[in-house]
Every structure is written in C-alpha cells, then in structure tokens.
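Now for a concrete sample entry.
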Amino acid sequence: MASPPAATVSATAPATATATATAVTRPRMIVHKDPNCGCCEKWIEHVRAAGFTVDVRNESDMNPIKERLGVPYGKGSCHTAEVGGYVIEGHVPAEDILRLLAEKPDARGLTVPGMPAGSPGMELPDGRVQAYAVELIARDGSVTTFAHHGPGAQ
C-alpha cells in the first residue's frame, strides 16, 4: 500500500475542516476517555463542531481499548476514538479525520502521540501552537506522517 502524501496545514486551518466537512458523510464516533480529563472534553467539542455525532464512554482503564484497536506502543495519548472503521488516537484535528474518511486508506487509523500544545483540545490562551505531526497507523503497526501542523508546517 502506498502511503498518502503528507498534508501541510497551517494553524489557521479550521476553516478547511468546515469546508471539507460538508463534502464527507460523517459516521458516528465513539470516544473512550478518562472521566476526569478536561482536554478530552475540549477535543470532543472540536469534533462535534466539525459535524460528528459523538458517543462518549468513560473508562477507568484505557490500555485494553488501545490494545484492542491496535494503537502502537509509544503512540498513545489520553483518549481513543473509533470512527468509520478507524482508530483515532489523541488530539487529531477534525480536518485530518475528514481526509482519512474521504481517502479511505488501508490502515488502522491516525495518531497524535502525546499532547502537543495548541492541538485541538490543548489550545493555549495566547494561541501558540507547538509543531506536531499526525501519523497514519498502517495495518502492521508502523507509522508514516499524514499531516503537519503548527509553525513551520510543510
């Protein structure tokens, strides 16, 4: 399988997500999260604003869910979503989820490892965005860059 080309996205790309959202039918999303995580709630607001219907499942132990869905070791974050047959791990922007659903690559899904400052759900009061990559998780668990975000994104 050839990897899709990496997208370059600026910090001002939310308008792209809105424009793309109208072109893609959005399946229901299930989000597994810790019941006490505030950034997870903010990310859920982000994907709902992009038109996703979200079912939230509060979980006391996320590890079995990440293992079942094939999130590679070291690529985890604080919440895990399921949508359209894909896993979405962490603070993945809605525009990248929409691109994934439109392109339908033969892959497990997308991940943003860790919790990059300024990513959806991790916004800072001053608007700063840490450069980060969204990674495509291949069926074999390897990852390739799917999109770049933040300053210097290319």
About this structure: The longest helix spans residues 38-49. The radius of gyration is 14 Å. The chain has a mean pLDDT of 86.
